[in-house]
Amino acid sequence: MSNSYKNLKHYAFSEHTTAFKVLTEVFREFSIHYFLIGAQARDVHFFQKGIKPNRGTRDIDFAVMMQDMTGYNELKEALNKKGFENTKDPFRLNWSLGETVIDLLPFGQIEENYTVNFDERELELSVLGYSELNEELQEFYLDEDEAVSIPVPPLHGIFLLKLLSWDDTKPDRNKDLKDLNQILNNYWEFVEDEAYENHLNLFDDNFTTKIAAARILGRHLRSTIQKSPTLQTNIIRILEEQTNQVDPPGLMLQSFASENDTSIEEVKILLDEILKGIKDRQ
Protein backbone atom coordinates (compact mmCIF):
# COMPACT_ATOMS: atom_id res chain seq x y z
CA MET A 1 0.00 0.00 0.00
CA SER A 2 1.43 3.37 -1.00
CA ASN A 3 1.04 6.37 1.28
CA SER A 4 -0.02 9.98 0.80
CA TYR A 5 0.73 12.30 3.69
CA LYS A 6 -1.41 15.20 2.49
CA ASN A 7 -3.73 16.19 5.27
CA LEU A 8 -7.47 15.81 4.63
CA LYS A 9 -8.86 17.60 7.66
CA HIS A 10 -10.25 20.47 5.55
CA TYR A 11 -11.72 18.09 2.98
CA ALA A 12 -15.49 17.47 3.09
CA PHE A 13 -14.90 14.01 4.56
CA SER A 14 -13.90 15.75 7.79
CA GLU A 15 -17.63 16.26 8.46
CA HIS A 16 -17.78 12.50 9.02
CA THR A 17 -14.61 12.22 11.13
CA THR A 18 -16.33 11.22 14.39
CA ALA A 19 -18.39 8.51 12.73
CA PHE A 20 -15.36 7.34 10.80
CA LYS A 21 -13.20 7.07 13.93
CA VAL A 22 -15.82 4.90 15.62
CA LEU A 23 -16.13 2.81 12.48
CA THR A 24 -12.38 2.21 12.20
CA GLU A 25 -12.14 1.31 15.88
CA VAL A 26 -14.67 -1.47 15.32
CA PHE A 27 -12.87 -2.55 12.14
CA ARG A 28 -9.65 -2.88 14.13
CA GLU A 29 -11.45 -4.77 16.90
CA PHE A 30 -12.66 -7.30 14.34
CA SER A 31 -9.37 -7.23 12.37
CA ILE A 32 -11.30 -6.26 9.25
CA HIS A 33 -9.54 -5.01 6.15
CA TYR A 34 -11.43 -2.18 4.44
CA PHE A 35 -11.13 0.57 1.87
CA LEU A 36 -13.13 3.56 0.70
CA ILE A 37 -14.92 3.45 -2.65
CA GLY A 38 -17.56 5.53 -4.45
CA ALA A 39 -17.82 9.29 -4.85
CA GLN A 40 -15.99 9.99 -1.58
CA ALA A 41 -12.99 8.00 -2.80
CA ARG A 42 -12.97 10.01 -6.01
CA ASP A 43 -13.12 13.22 -4.00
CA VAL A 44 -10.12 12.24 -1.86
CA HIS A 45 -8.06 12.15 -5.07
CA PHE A 46 -9.58 15.36 -6.40
CA PHE A 47 -8.80 17.15 -3.15
CA GLN A 48 -5.11 16.48 -3.72
CA LYS A 49 -5.27 18.51 -6.94
CA GLY A 50 -7.71 21.19 -5.79
CA ILE A 51 -10.46 19.92 -8.12
CA LYS A 52 -14.03 20.62 -7.06
CA PRO A 53 -16.32 17.59 -7.40
CA ASN A 54 -19.28 17.90 -9.75
CA ARG A 55 -21.63 16.81 -6.96
CA GLY A 56 -21.63 16.22 -3.23
CA THR A 57 -22.78 13.19 -1.29
CA ARG A 58 -23.31 12.30 2.34
CA ASP A 59 -23.01 8.59 1.58
CA ILE A 60 -19.75 6.85 2.41
CA ASP A 61 -19.13 3.48 0.80
CA PHE A 62 -16.64 0.99 2.23
CA ALA A 63 -15.57 -2.34 0.83
CA VAL A 64 -15.01 -4.69 3.77
CA MET A 65 -13.26 -8.05 3.47
CA MET A 66 -15.41 -10.72 5.12
CA GLN A 67 -15.31 -14.50 5.45
CA ASP A 68 -19.05 -15.10 5.73
CA MET A 69 -22.42 -13.51 6.41
CA THR A 70 -22.28 -14.50 10.10
CA GLY A 71 -19.21 -12.36 10.60
CA TYR A 72 -20.76 -9.54 8.59
CA ASN A 73 -23.86 -9.51 10.81
CA GLU A 74 -21.69 -9.57 13.94
CA LEU A 75 -19.87 -6.51 12.60
CA LYS A 76 -23.17 -4.70 12.11
CA GLU A 77 -24.31 -5.63 15.64
CA ALA A 78 -21.09 -4.19 17.08
CA LEU A 79 -21.64 -0.98 15.11
CA ASN A 80 -25.24 -0.80 16.37
CA LYS A 81 -23.88 -0.65 19.92
CA LYS A 82 -21.61 2.28 18.93
CA GLY A 83 -24.34 4.50 17.49
CA PHE A 84 -25.00 3.17 13.99
CA GLU A 85 -28.56 2.24 13.09
CA ASN A 86 -29.73 -0.37 10.59
CA THR A 87 -31.87 0.62 7.61
CA LYS A 88 -34.15 -1.24 5.22
CA ASP A 89 -31.09 -1.94 3.07
CA PRO A 90 -29.06 -4.76 4.65
CA PHE A 91 -25.73 -3.16 3.74
CA ARG A 92 -26.56 0.41 4.88
CA LEU A 93 -26.23 2.06 8.30
CA ASN A 94 -27.11 5.55 9.53
CA TRP A 95 -24.97 7.35 12.10
CA SER A 96 -27.40 8.33 14.86
CA LEU A 97 -25.39 11.42 15.89
CA GLY A 98 -25.21 13.03 12.45
CA GLU A 99 -26.15 12.79 8.80
CA THR A 100 -23.54 10.22 7.83
CA VAL A 101 -24.79 7.23 5.80
CA ILE A 102 -22.47 4.22 5.62
CA ASP A 103 -22.64 1.42 3.06
CA LEU A 104 -20.64 -1.68 4.04
CA LEU A 105 -20.10 -3.73 0.89
CA PRO A 106 -18.60 -7.15 1.73
CA PHE A 107 -16.16 -8.97 -0.52
CA GLY A 108 -13.60 -11.76 -0.19
CA GLN A 109 -14.47 -15.28 0.92
CA ILE A 110 -18.07 -14.19 1.46
CA GLU A 111 -18.61 -13.71 -2.29
CA GLU A 112 -19.49 -16.32 -4.89
CA ASN A 113 -18.88 -15.61 -8.56
CA TYR A 114 -18.18 -11.94 -7.73
CA THR A 115 -21.57 -11.64 -6.03
CA VAL A 116 -22.77 -11.34 -2.41
CA ASN A 117 -26.29 -12.49 -1.57
CA PHE A 118 -28.41 -10.91 1.16
CA ASP A 119 -31.05 -13.60 1.61
CA GLU A 120 -33.41 -11.57 3.78
CA ARG A 121 -34.01 -9.11 0.94
CA GLU A 122 -33.28 -11.48 -1.95
CA LEU A 123 -30.68 -8.92 -2.91
CA GLU A 124 -27.56 -9.64 -4.94
CA LEU A 125 -24.60 -7.27 -4.80
CA SER A 126 -21.89 -7.34 -7.43
CA VAL A 127 -18.37 -6.91 -6.00
CA LEU A 128 -16.46 -7.48 -9.23
CA GLY A 129 -13.14 -5.62 -9.09
CA TYR A 130 -12.94 -5.28 -5.31
CA SER A 131 -10.37 -8.04 -4.73
CA GLU A 132 -8.20 -6.82 -7.60
CA LEU A 133 -8.16 -3.23 -6.36
CA ASN A 134 -7.49 -4.41 -2.82
CA GLU A 135 -3.91 -5.01 -3.98
CA GLU A 136 -3.44 -1.41 -5.19
CA LEU A 137 -4.58 0.75 -2.28
CA GLN A 138 -3.16 4.15 -1.38
CA GLU A 139 -3.39 5.58 2.12
CA PHE A 140 -4.51 9.11 3.00
CA TYR A 141 -4.66 10.63 6.48
CA LEU A 142 -7.40 12.68 8.12
CA ASP A 143 -5.16 14.55 10.55
CA GLU A 144 -1.57 15.60 11.20
CA ASP A 145 -0.85 12.89 13.75
CA GLU A 146 -1.88 10.22 11.21
CA ALA A 147 -4.12 8.56 13.79
CA VAL A 148 -6.92 8.01 11.27
CA SER A 149 -6.22 6.90 7.73
CA ILE A 150 -8.35 6.22 4.69
CA PRO A 151 -7.26 3.41 2.33
CA VAL A 152 -8.40 4.35 -1.17
CA PRO A 153 -8.02 2.64 -4.57
CA PRO A 154 -6.11 4.57 -7.25
CA LEU A 155 -8.16 6.91 -9.42
CA HIS A 156 -8.29 4.48 -12.33
CA GLY A 157 -9.78 1.98 -9.86
CA ILE A 158 -12.58 4.42 -9.03
CA PHE A 159 -13.21 4.79 -12.77
CA LEU A 160 -13.35 0.99 -13.08
CA LEU A 161 -15.88 0.56 -10.25
CA LYS A 162 -18.01 3.44 -11.54
CA LEU A 163 -18.04 1.86 -14.99
CA LEU A 164 -19.21 -1.47 -13.59
CA SER A 165 -21.79 0.20 -11.33
CA TRP A 166 -23.28 2.13 -14.25
CA ASP A 167 -23.37 -0.96 -16.46
CA ASP A 168 -25.25 -2.90 -13.76
CA THR A 169 -27.99 -0.30 -13.49
CA LYS A 170 -28.07 1.64 -16.79
CA PRO A 171 -29.86 3.73 -17.84
CA ASP A 172 -30.77 4.79 -14.29
CA ARG A 173 -27.36 5.67 -12.80
CA ASN A 174 -26.68 8.99 -14.54
CA LYS A 175 -24.59 10.13 -11.58
CA ASP A 176 -22.05 7.41 -12.42
CA LEU A 177 -21.76 8.79 -15.95
CA LYS A 178 -21.14 12.28 -14.55
CA ASP A 179 -18.42 10.90 -12.27
CA LEU A 180 -16.79 8.94 -15.10
CA ASN A 181 -16.79 12.02 -17.29
CA GLN A 182 -15.21 14.17 -14.59
CA ILE A 183 -12.45 11.63 -13.93
CA LEU A 184 -11.67 11.40 -17.64
CA ASN A 185 -11.67 15.20 -18.03
CA ASN A 186 -9.21 15.67 -15.16
CA TYR A 187 -6.99 12.60 -15.53
CA TRP A 188 -4.12 14.57 -17.06
CA GLU A 189 -3.74 16.43 -13.75
CA PHE A 190 -2.79 13.12 -12.13
CA VAL A 191 -0.57 11.65 -14.87
CA GLU A 192 1.30 14.58 -16.40
CA ASP A 193 4.63 13.79 -14.72
CA GLU A 194 4.21 10.09 -15.47
CA ALA A 195 3.47 10.87 -19.12
CA TYR A 196 6.81 12.60 -19.60
CA GLU A 197 8.65 9.80 -17.81
CA ASN A 198 6.95 6.63 -19.08
CA HIS A 199 4.67 7.42 -22.04
CA LEU A 200 6.80 9.38 -24.48
CA ASN A 201 5.36 7.45 -27.43
CA LEU A 202 2.12 9.42 -26.95
CA PHE A 203 3.78 12.72 -27.83
CA ASP A 204 3.17 12.59 -31.57
CA ASP A 205 1.51 14.90 -34.12
CA ASN A 206 -1.93 14.04 -32.74
CA PHE A 207 -1.01 14.80 -29.11
CA THR A 208 -3.48 16.53 -26.84
CA THR A 209 -3.50 16.22 -23.07
CA LYS A 210 -7.01 14.70 -23.12
CA ILE A 211 -6.11 12.05 -25.67
CA ALA A 212 -2.87 11.18 -23.87
CA ALA A 213 -4.63 11.02 -20.50
CA ALA A 214 -7.31 8.69 -21.89
CA ARG A 215 -4.63 6.38 -23.30
CA ILE A 216 -2.77 6.34 -19.98
CA LEU A 217 -6.04 5.68 -18.15
CA GLY A 218 -6.47 2.63 -20.37
CA ARG A 219 -2.95 1.46 -19.56
CA HIS A 220 -3.63 1.85 -15.86
CA LEU A 221 -6.87 -0.09 -16.21
CA ARG A 222 -4.99 -2.85 -18.02
CA SER A 223 -2.71 -3.36 -15.02
CA THR A 224 -5.77 -4.07 -12.85
CA ILE A 225 -8.10 -6.00 -15.15
CA GLN A 226 -5.42 -8.40 -16.35
CA LYS A 227 -5.60 -9.96 -12.87
CA SER A 228 -9.06 -11.35 -13.65
CA PRO A 229 -10.35 -12.65 -17.00
CA THR A 230 -13.92 -11.92 -15.89
CA LEU A 231 -13.07 -8.34 -14.96
CA GLN A 232 -11.14 -7.82 -18.18
CA THR A 233 -13.96 -9.20 -20.33
CA ASN A 234 -16.55 -6.98 -18.67
CA ILE A 235 -14.58 -3.73 -18.84
CA ILE A 236 -13.69 -4.23 -22.52
CA ARG A 237 -17.27 -5.24 -23.32
CA ILE A 238 -18.73 -2.10 -21.74
CA LEU A 239 -16.35 0.23 -23.55
CA GLU A 240 -16.72 -1.54 -26.88
CA GLU A 241 -20.52 -1.48 -26.62
CA GLN A 242 -20.47 2.27 -26.05
CA THR A 243 -17.94 3.12 -28.75
CA ASN A 244 -19.72 0.94 -31.33
CA GLN A 245 -23.08 2.64 -30.80
CA VAL A 246 -22.44 5.75 -32.88
CA ASP A 247 -25.68 5.80 -34.87
CA PRO A 248 -27.61 6.06 -32.64
CA PRO A 249 -24.95 7.02 -30.09
CA GLY A 250 -24.52 5.01 -26.90
CA LEU A 251 -25.61 6.44 -23.57
CA MET A 252 -22.03 7.18 -22.53
CA LEU A 253 -21.25 9.02 -25.76
CA GLN A 254 -24.43 11.06 -25.42
CA SER A 255 -23.84 11.92 -21.77
CA PHE A 256 -20.16 12.89 -22.13
CA ALA A 257 -20.86 14.97 -25.24
CA SER A 258 -23.68 16.82 -23.49
CA GLU A 259 -21.68 17.39 -20.30
CA ASN A 260 -18.65 18.68 -22.23
CA ASP A 261 -20.60 20.60 -24.89
CA THR A 262 -18.70 18.72 -27.56
CA SER A 263 -19.41 16.25 -30.36
CA ILE A 264 -20.12 12.53 -30.22
CA GLU A 265 -17.10 11.98 -32.47
CA GLU A 266 -14.72 13.74 -30.05
CA VAL A 267 -15.98 11.68 -27.13
CA LYS A 268 -15.63 8.49 -29.18
CA ILE A 269 -11.97 9.33 -29.80
CA LEU A 270 -11.36 9.45 -26.03
CA LEU A 271 -13.16 6.17 -25.34
CA ASP A 272 -11.27 4.55 -28.21
CA GLU A 273 -8.02 5.74 -26.62
CA ILE A 274 -8.98 4.08 -23.33
CA LEU A 275 -9.52 0.82 -25.23
CA LYS A 276 -6.21 1.23 -27.06
CA GLY A 277 -4.46 1.72 -23.72
CA ILE A 278 -6.05 -1.45 -22.35
CA LYS A 279 -4.84 -3.38 -25.37
CA ASP A 280 -1.38 -1.77 -25.60
CA ARG A 281 1.67 -3.93 -25.13
CA GLN A 282 3.84 -1.14 -23.87
Descriptive notes:
The protein is α+β, with helices and mostly antiparallel strands and 282 residues long. The chain folds into two domains: 2-153, 2-Layer Sandwich (Beta Polymerase, domain 2); 162-279, no CATH class. The protein contains ten helices and ten strands. It has helices at 17-29, 38-49, 69-81, 130-133, 155-169, 174-198, 209-225, 229-244, 251-260, 264-279, and strands at residues 2-7, 34-37, 59-65, 84-86, 92-95, 101-107, 115-118, 123-126, 138-141, 149-152. The strands form three sheets. Strands 2-3-6-5-4 form a five-stranded mixed beta sheet. A three-stranded mixed beta sheet has the order 1-9-10, with helices on one face. Strand 5 (92-95) and strand 6 form a beta hairpin. The longest helix is centred in the middle third of the chain and has 25 residues, at 174-198. It starts with a strand and ends with a helix.
